Every structure is written in C-alpha cells, then in structure tokens.
Amino acid sequence: MDRLWLIALLVLWGVLLFGGFLFGHLDPERIRRMPAWTRMASSLALVIAAWSAYIFARETEAGSYALLIALGMSFGFIGDLLMARWLSLKNHVIGGIAAFGLGHIAYIAALVSYGNQAGLDARAPRWGALAVWLVAGVIGWYVVVLRNHKPTLLHRAALPYTLLLSSTAGFAAGLALQSSAFMPLALGAALFLLSDLILAARLFNNLRFYLIDDVVWLLYGPAQMLIVYSVGSALAA
Q1: CB-neighbour burial class of residue 59 (10 A; exposed 0-12, middle 13-18, buried 19+)
Q2: pLDDT in tens, 9-19
C-alpha cells in the first residue's frame, strides 16, 4: 500500500507537469504553455510524496534522511510560490532564493548525514565530486550572472545560492560514485543546477527563447522528483 500510494503521487505529478505542457496554451510572449496552477500543483504533489515517504520510513535507518528531504522539498515549494508571485512579498526573487537556499541546506544535511551513517563517506569520491561541482558552480555563476554586469545585492546573493546547489550536486555525486542506487539522485541534483542557471540567464541577462519557462520547469520538476524519490534509494542502500 505504501508503494502504491507513492506511485500514485508520482503519476499525479507527471500528469500535472507534462499534461500542463501538452494541453496548455501558448502565452503571448511564447515562453510557456504550462499554466501556473499545474506547475504549483505538481510541486505540491512532490511535497505530499516527500512527507508520505517520511511517514513510511520514519522507523527505519533512512528516517532522518527522509525527514530532511521532506523539509527541503517543502522549502522548495515555498520558493515556487514566491517565484510565481502566489505569495505576497515585495522582493519575490530574493525570497525565492532564500527559500530554495534553505531547501538545499536540508538536502545537503540529508546527503552528508546519510553518507556518514551508511558508510558512504569515502574521502576521494565525496570531496572530489564536491570540488568539481563547486568549480562548475562558480564558473556558471560568473558566466551567467556576473559577467558584463555591475554587481548588485541580487548578483551577490546568487553566488552563495549557486554554491549551495553545486554542493547538493557534489554530495549527491559522491554518494552515486559509491552506490549506484543514488545515480538518479545525482542526476536530479545536476538537473536542478542546470534549470537554475537557465532561469538566472533569463533574470539577469534577459535570455529568451521559445518556451524557455517550460524548459526550466521540465528540468526542475524531474530534478525535484528524483531527489524526493531518492528516499527509496536510501532504504535500498
């Protein structure tokens, strides 16, 4: 029953995200088809899935991992609402960055604590993968956000946020290098960073191309899904 419920939520998430893309209407700017409500509802479905996974796993060794993942996804959902301006905040971009940042702190805590607990804490893969992803993050931040701009508070805030996303990708890759069960998790963390760099290019450099907003969500949505459903990998490993 537990597995069936999580599968049902996964199907619901897919219907909302991909259905919104397939059956939505192209907006006047030609940058999206997905209605805002299907995007927010797909994110909410992942919040429910994350907390459901925690309820099912709380008595196991993966209980703390599941709790931190659920907290991270919940902060991510708040970030989604802020970025979509469904929550009232004067500077919704800074608020969104703060919410996502807190979410990634929870994700990083989950990955590090679980790696220590499960013996997946070998120094070379853990710190080597982290170093590679941090370098990639700094390069991405410079190219997409800082280059050709006079730094503002928002430009500076984007750097620690990017480093948090890169750290999540790095620690996820470190786990995947030691256990193939975490390969989907590593892919999810990488997709999250990629989606955010595209979004940053849109915000800071006015990048525009056909369906850019949908591209961001078609990367971001599966990224969050793979992170949330990595609780199953933690249980298996």
Answers
A1: exposed
A2: 999 999 999 99
